[in-house]
Design brief:
Length: 446
């Protein structure tokens, strides 16, 4: 990464880079037909993405199509659940189908997709901004991007995906209820959060409000909750060398937080069935005091059209932890070109269009999704409209990634099963962690 001082972003990126270099695959990270030199062909393309909750994506596509009548893009929307999106993309890749051109990938999928030669290597501006690719104007310049996002698109030192949106978990909270309870600041620790809940419960307005929610349903979301809980306790699921690290006091403390929050009634009874959108609707209904959630919720929850009962009544803060501010998961999406796509030159231009500062600014204004262009987080106009941007920028800089491994599908499935069994009381915390350590050991072996 570019920054020399050991900031939170540098440490996070260094760990991610180590994890990527430990992944399997060819030494050159690619094969014929997947290298940067193969970016040829112009004409219509498809853009494959998860469900667009904002409704704004089609406007961006329409703008592109108006300017590129002979190179139009068509959106292919996949299911809302990330696991289903990944499976459909893999099915398309394993058949070497050219039906998908540009892929909207979860940041944690890069290693798996690149190692399996499902992605086209992208030309990247070298350090210093010189070189033949730069002279041709073909290379991707990442110098404007947040440092923490850049490594998520790289595999074995080469670029396979361009950061499009970033993400990090934040604590949404009912500021109006905290104010009425005499609480002047959001909680920085779990103990402060539980104390605030107890005080709000004594209010007439707070007696039917649940305390806290983070996703613990058996999907990708529970992997994210586990990464944040264990990371906030000072642990990790897979360490920088690529090995599982669940036989630690920190891992136990982190998982116990999730287990006890549900067992002690701090979370809604329906917590194990609520997905991301279910959690959003629950918060917007006014039934929740604290919620771990992504930035996209901000614009939706603050709508004044009657769809949200908490519009103008909530705020955001960093996630709490056991002894101070917690750790967020590094989320987001990157844009990549399928190794089997036609019209790869058009696909590269389309990626450049969607990830450019102008498009990211417009997307932030329309959807509140986190951009990857660093300057937008310090833009006075943006900060005025989205007061959470400084909190989010800090969260992204210190965020922890999910395990960056080639066999990610198997790894996250193992995490989901073990953590869900512990949260629902089917196994003890110790049994869940020891079992997960055993499952992950062969899956992460080099």
């Amino acid at each position: 990464m570019r920054r020399i001082p050991l900031t939170g972003a540098t440490v996070a990126c260094a760990a991610l880079a180590l994890s990527l270099s430990a992944c399997g695959g060819d030494d050159d990270g690619g094969s014929k037909g997947t290298t940067a030199e193969g970016l040829q062909g112009r004409g219509p393309i498809t853009f494959v993405t998860g469900k667009d909750r904002s409704g704004y994506l089609q406007k961006q596509i329409d703008n592109w199509n108006e300017d590129h009548p002979n190179e139009k893009a068509r959106v292919i929307e996949l299911p809302d659940e990330p696991n289903d999106q990944r499976q459909q993309m893999i099915q398309n890749a394993t058949t070497k189908s050219d039906a998908y051109s540009v892929l909207n990938l979860d940041v944690v999928w890069t290693a798996e997709f690149a190692a399996n030669r499902w992605l086209t290597q992208l030309p990247m501006v070298p350090s210093g901004g010189s070189g033949a690719a730069t002279a041709k104007g073909a290379a991707i310049d990442l110098s404007t991007m947040l440092p923490a996002t850049i490594a998520t698109g790289q595999y074995r030192g080469k670029l396979y995906a361009v950061p499009s949106t970033s993400d990090a978990g934040m604590l949404y909270y009912r500021k109006d209820l905290l104010d009425k309870a005499g609480i002047s600041a959001p909680p920085k620790t779990y103990a402060e959060m539980w104390s605030a809940c107890d005080k709000v419960k004594k209010l007439p307005e707070g007696k039917d409000v649940d305390c806290f929610f983070t996703e613990v349903n058996k999907t990708e979301s529970i992997t994210i909750s586990a990464v944040e809980a264990i990371g906030s306790a000072g642990g990790t699921i897979v360490d920088a060398s690529g090995k599982p690290a669940l036989n630690t006091p920190a891992a136990k403390q982190g998982l116990e937080f999730l287990v006890n929050a549900r067992k002690d009634g701090r979370m809604p009874k329906a917590a194990v069935t609520l997905d991301t959108e279910g959690g959003r609707r629950y918060f917007q209904s006014g039934k929740l005091l604290f919620q771990r959630q992504w930035p996209y919720q901000y614009a939706l929850a603050d709508k004044g059209d009657g769809s949200s009962k908490v519009a103008g009544r909530f705020a955001v803060a960093p996630l709490p932890g056991p002894n101070g501010p917690g750790v967020a998961n590094l989320g987001g999406h990157n844009l990549a070109i399928s190794a089997f796509a036609k019209n790869k030159a058009t696909s590269l231009d389309f990626i450049r269009y969607l990830t450019g500062e102008q498009s990211q600014r417009a997307n932030l204004l329309a959807t509140s999704q986190a951009p990857t262009v660093a300057a937008l987080y310090d833009d006075p106009e943006m900060v005025k409209k989205f007061p959470y941007l400084p909190v989010l920028k800090s969260a992204i800089a210190s965020a922890k990634p999910r395990p960056v491994v080639v066999k990610y599908g198997d790894v996250t499935a193992a995490i989901q099963g073990s953590v869900y069994d512990a949260v629902t009381g089917r196994t003890s915390v110790d049994q869940a962690l020891s079992g997960l350590q055993s499952k992950l050991t062969p899956l992460t072996a080099q």
